[in-house]
Amino acid sequence: MHTRWNKRLVGQAAVLILVNVMVDTVITAPLIVLPQMLDHFGTDQPAWLNAGALLAGAMWAPLLGKTADIHGKRKVLVWTLVLAGVGALVCMIAPGLWVFVLGRVVQGAAVASLFLTVGIVRDICETRIGMIVTGIVTTGNAVFGIAFPFLFETLSHAYGYRVVFVVSAVFAATGALLVRFFLPESVVRTPGRVDIAGALLLGGGIAAVVTYVSLGGDFGWTGAIPLPILLAGAVALACWVRLAHRTPDPVVDITKLSRPLVLTLGVVVLGTGAYQSMLQLFSLLADVSADEGLGYGLAAEGALGMLYGIPAIGIVLGGALAGALATRVGPAATLVAGVVLGLAGTLGLFAAVATLPLAVVCSFLLSLTAGALVTSGFNMASTLAPAERQGVVSSLVMVMIAIGSVILNFVGAAVLRSTRVDVGGAAANSATGVFGYIGIGTGAFVAAGVLAVLLVRAQRRASVASDPARAVDVA
């Protein structure tokens, strides 16, 4: 295992960063060509084109995490990348909307790649260097996010929206080959079998509940379509809980979900969800000029570049700093720091909705938050699980990231829709809706902060009550 930086570790980290660049081509790159896809498929439901991969990722993650613990993380990561490539090809040739959505579901397996790369880092690195490498691997791909919008925008104008999925398939194939030949296989395995039924019930139940949130704003929370989906999800989750207590080797062992781990997952779902919802809000603010008299607006030349380009740097910086600081103060403390930065950035938006320079500062603070929360969440979860359960525990962090991002984005969008005003015969988001949106993000960060403080206190009590060498192993 690596105890310090060396050429081999640098090469392995580069391969893992490339894998996470591929994840970006699945999650964020399609947003750049979203208007073209909406026009091509003749739909006004961007959620099915945009959030489908994240929803599928939440469904895939528990199954792939358990499989990785049993059969090896490298093997599962290779097959995950192959699935993502196949899904990209299906999206590329899809003749209609629902075939495209099916492709996005398959491609959503790529979301699992992120937590598998974290698991591999923990396999090849000792804890101290592993925390730093985790921060670099989980956020280093954001550097490419600076150039990707310009690249995909240019290519899509020349070759159409399909070029995004061609690039994604190429990244997936390249990543699969590099992972297979340049990374070692896990030496720690968990004996047992994969609980397929439990994985399907858990993943399907989560996907159904999140889908209900995504559809409720458009079709009504008690509508004929969303409500049955919610009920089906609730039944699936109830069946999963019952099965988990009866199965000797469940996909997620509920009895081993320690209090610190539950608190960590709560911080991740609230914190990353709040950040992602603010990111969505920036695009809406940048589309309106302050001169329109709506009480907000950041439209100006280069506004989007400043609001989205600078965060790419902040995400990398936040992840690297969180990883380095975690070796000194612990990942629980860096989780608190990340939440505090996010709360400061979100509160600042109340005054920055019509002032671009201040909004850029808030955007940078929120990007630091994103890097710190993702890195610290994975680091914290890794310290709370034995080696043979790293895949499952890391998959739960990924599920929380996906759920938080989707739910708070759709809740915020529902608030904006319900408070629209008529301006010159056209509907526009009101200042009330925008400030309400920010208020939801603020509330999420406050709740995440409370959970983070409870986590720190729980860790301190565990350190006092146990042997110092085992203070972090409270799972």
Automatic annotation (TrEMBL):
PROSITE patterns: MFS (PS50850). Gene3D superfamilies: MFS general substrate transporter like domains. It is found in: Cell membrane. The keyword Calcium does not apply. GO terms for cellular component: plasma membrane. Keywords: Membrane, Transmembrane, Transmembrane helix. The keyword Transmembrane helix applies. One of its GO terms (molecular function) is transmembrane transporter activity. The chain crosses the membrane at residues 12-34, 46-64, 76-99, 105-125, 132-152, 158-182, 194-215, 221-241, 261-286, 306-325, 332-352, 358-380, 392-414, 434-456. SUPFAM superfamilies: MFS general substrate transporter. Residues 9-461 form the Major facilitator superfamily (MFS) profile domain. It is a multi-pass membrane protein. PANTHER family: COMD, MAJOR FACILITATOR SUPERFAMILY. This is Putative MFS family arabinose efflux permease. It comes from Saccharothrix australiensis. The lineage of its organism: Bacteria, Bacillati, Actinomycetota, Actinomycetes, Pseudonocardiales.
